[in-house]
Amino acid sequence: MTGHVSIRLASERVNHCVATSNELPRFYTPGEVISGMQDFMRGHGTYTEDDNLKSSVAGVMQKVNKLICIRPLKSRYVGEIGDVIVGRVLEVQQRRWKVDTNSRLDSILQLSSVNLPGGELRRRSVEDEQSMRKVLEEGDLISAEVQNLFSDGSLALHTRSLKYGKLVQGTLVKVFPSLIKRRKNHFHNILGISIIIGNNGYIWISPLEKEPTEDDENLENIVEAKLEVIQSFNY
To answer: Which residues does residue 92 pair with via DSSP β-bridges, in sequence order?
Structure first.
C-alpha cells in the first residue's frame, strides 16, 4: 500500500491574508525566491540566480530602502547602543569585568561604569579595584545596557542605573536573539513575576521582591538569603 505525501515549505504555511506590519515578519527558506533583481539590491543571506534574488539561509527578511537581507534565526547577538542585555561574568580583569552576552566576542564592563556601594559618586580608587570581586565575581549574572560599540564589534556595558546590576534568586532562559524584538521596555512584572527580556536572547525570570526600607533590619542577611543556585534553560 502506497500513499502520497505532500511537503510544503514553511513559508507556505503562513496565512498571509491576516499578516500585518505589526505581526511576525515573512519567513524564507534556503533557495526561495525573494524578488526580481531589477527591483532590489542583494544583501547578507541572499544570492542571485536566473535574474532572481534568493535566500541562502532560513530566516526573516530585513529591508532598508532597496537593500534586502535575510537574518538567520540561529545567529549570535549583534548589539546596538541602548540594548538591554542579561549576561554572565566570565573573568575579573584589571579595572573591568569580561561578560558573556551571547555575542561573537565577550563584552566589557568597566569599573567606572558600575555604581559604587552606597551609590557614591566619585573617582574609582585603588581600593575599589582591589575589591572588585565584592561587587561582581566569576559566574555572577547581571542586567546591563549597551553603552558603546568597540571597533572590533565587542560591546561596552554599563549598570549605572538602579534597574541594572547583579541578579539573584531566579532562572535564566536562553532563546535565539532573533526572537527578541527591540522595545522601549524590556522589564515586565506579571502576576508576581519579574521578567527581564534581554535583547541578546537571555531572559531572566524571578519573583517580585519587596523594596527594602530604612526600617528593615539585618539587610546583609536578607541579601545573603537570596543567593541560591541559578539554573539555565535552552530553547
So the answer is: 97
Q: How far apart (Å, rounded) are the C-alpha atoms in residues 148 and 151? A: 10
Helices (H), the chain: 126-130, 132-135, 219-225
Put simply, whether the predicted model's pTM sits higher than 0.70 gets the answer: no
Other beta carbons less than 10 A from residue 146's beta carbon: 21
CA–CA dist 113, 152 (Å, integer): 20
Residue 11 has pLDDT above 60, yes or no: no
Average pLDDT over the chain, rounded to an integer: 81
Residue 221, pLDDT above cutoff 50: no
When pLDDT is averaged across residues 65-91 and rounded to a whole number, the result is: 90
Among residues 98, 140, 132, 109, the alpha carbon closest in space to that of 227 is found at 140
Q: How many residues does the chain have?
A: 235
**Those residues with Cβ within 8 angstroms of residue 168's Cβ, 6 or more apart along the chain or in another chain:** 206, 223, 226, 227, 228, 230
Decide: 102 and 200 in contact? Cβ < 8 Å.
yes
- How far is Cα 145 from Cα 159, in angstroms, rounded to an integer? 7
